[in-house]
Amino acid sequence: MQFQSVSSLFAIVALFSAMAAAAPATKRKHEYSGVATWYSPKHNGGTKAACYGEHIDDDSNIVALNAPQYGDLGSNSDWCGKKIEIEGPNGKARASILDACPECDDGSLDLTPALFTKVVGDKDIGQGDITWRVL
To answer: What is the set of domains in the chain, with CATH numbers?
Structure first.
């Protein structure tokens, strides 16, 4: 009788182990918080992005990443080209990291005017709290 109980216990443990192994792993993306500001590539900083020298304009869905996260401002960052989702008081938007913001604090982003209005609201607001994550 004891042998059957032990065998049954092993069978139950094996069943639960198989179920756990088959369950999909959920990995949460790291979320960052900061302040969104806006800049006009046409008038502030130029139309060549810090990343790869790509052309950017006021209507581009790109962001300038804060200097602490970007790293060496004189070279392409590991962040260059990453797709992100930004959420602010006015909504959500997707963008690419293609530029650097020397004045921005850790977690903060500088957005093009078009992106700023989608995420934060009217440009006259000047800045707004955001969260963002890499897609």
So the answer is: 29-134 (2.40.40.10)
